[in-house]
TrEMBL record:
This is ABC transporter. Belongs to the ABC transporter superfamily. Keywords: ATP-binding, Nucleotide-binding, Transport. CDD domains: ABC_MJ0796_LolCDE_FtsE (cd03255). It comes from the Bacteria. One of its GO terms (molecular function) is transmembrane transporter activity. The keyword Ribonucleoprotein does not apply.
Amino acid sequence: MTNATIANEPSAAASAAENPAATIPALRLDRVSYSYTKGGKKVLDGRSHDFQPGMVPALTGPSGAGKTTLLSRLSGLAVPTEGRVLYHGNDLAKTDRYRYRSHDIGVIFQSFNLLPALTVAENIILSMDASGKTFDRPKTQIAKELIAKVRLRPEYADERILHLSGGEQQRVAIARALSYDPSIILADEPTGNLDLGTQNDIMAIFRSLAHDEGRCVIIVTHSPEVAAQSDEVYELAKLL
């Protein structure tokens, strides 16, 4: 695990120009700033950083440091006030961000956002339907494979979300985020309400997704234990 702080840094694009052989990151912050009102106080100020494929970075920092704001920019929900967020070298502000969110990036929400009246398989398949992607095999088969990948037994496919524990729902949320095979996963406090054993198991799943499958798995967390199990700690400081 390495440590990184995100103070103002040289332009990431300039760094890449100096070393053209460097691997293009999955996501790149290039002098990203953001304020909620024009001319207002900045929540983010000139942030530059590369998020590499095959890695599990932990995004940490105190409340009010801009973690949620940064997550929204990385996920393409909004664009920076200044600077750029680049996905495989392409500026998100100039691309189809709906397609990016439905094809290239999977988000795991702190509150899961699963539909409680549906079964596990139905939640996963609904996400596949919403992506608009085509698949090389039946969606029910893919859903069953994802259920196994997140370490749930096959019979969970027909279980309703209402009947699941918090840890089980978190696994379903991971499976749903993986349903359309995104290259990037963003997880917002994914272990916040889980016991230590379940937390460790969830982190093992994330590390496998990154290290074995080459995905970039970015985790927002307050947990020192989660940060310690990540490949990189990227700490945000609250602006004065």
